[in-house]
Amino acid sequence: MPLIVNNLTLKYLYGVTAIQDISFTLNSNEKLAVLALESGGKTTLFKSLAGLLKPATGNISINNINIYDSKLKDLDIVAISSDLWIKKHQTVKRSLEAPLRIRGIKKKDRLEQIVLASSKFGIYPNLTDLVSQLDKEDLIRTVFARSSLRTSNLFLIDNVFAILNTPRRTQLFREMTPYIKSITAPFVFMTDSPDEAFSICEKVLILNFGVKQQYASPLEILTRPETLFVDKFIFPYKTTTEVEINNLKLYYRCSFVESKSSTNKFKVKDVFYRNNSPHALLTNNIEIPIMEFPIHDEYSIEENLASSNYFTVNDEKRYDLTL
Question: Which three-class secondary structure string do you get for 289-317?
Answer without folding.
Answer: EHHHCCCEEEEECCCCHHHHCEEEECCEE
